[in-house]
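Q: Hi! First time doing this. I have a protein sequence and I read that you can turn it into a structure. Is that right? Here it is:
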Amino acid sequence: QVQLVESGGGLVLTGGSLRLSCAASGRTFTNYPMGWFRRAPGKELKFVASINWSGGSTYYADSVKGRFTISRDNAKNTVYLQMNSLKPEDTAVYYCNAGTAPYSTGGAYWGQGTQVTVSS
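A: Yes, that's right. Below is the predicted 3D structure, encoded as structure tokens:
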């Protein structure tokens, strides 16, 4: 089992920035590629970004490419999502995921989600 706890969500104005964190516990963190997904109100869950076990490879949805950056600190068992130039359409609940294949529907383990609201 892997337990995931997200933090860092909140309310921000258009053009602002937020950094989400996801702390992992349980099984060996470096065994897992990690990712972020989001669900906007009334919409389906969508892939946002993923990163391989070492951090050497990253993948992004077209909608966030150039604005969001995924990273991980294996010494801290934490994955991050730096979100810049936020837009109202980025408003969603963001979920951390372990075992993420790039552009997939997600791996086996999920966090509880953190709300991001971008106000115009």
